[in-house]
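Fig. S4 source data, part A: sequence.
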Amino acid sequence: MCCGLLLGLLAITPIGTGLASGPPPAHLKEHTITIDATKLVPPSWWQVPGVTPSIWASDPESLDAPKTSELRALALKPGTYKFISFTFDFPFAVTLDGTLDFAASLDQCIEGRGTQTLVVRCKRMYPHGGERDDYYNQKPSP
């Protein structure tokens, strides 16, 4: 009886439609997004809540959140996220086609709109006509 029921179910399922028929819908597909905060001086930690470990751990020696001194690739589905450091946070979005979007008001400190790499160039945002302070022209020490 069991085999008959199974064969009956297979007979009404069109061939080639199986349970895993093709790629996931666009809103469920993960995209590799690289976070590049290596231009921040001095180095520190950052997080994307729900994706990377928190920066609010009490012991900096055992903190496993990403450091600004390294690039980090994240697998993100389309949606809105937040980059958080100790001094600066901002929202960004991953679009259905896997590229980044964020507010134009962040352009003085953030790069990567329309790409898959989010570049964070400032530790703070200041409302001063879009010109970065000379402080941000420092180079990280090797």
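Fig. S4 source data, part B ends here. The chain is about 10% helix and 25% strand.
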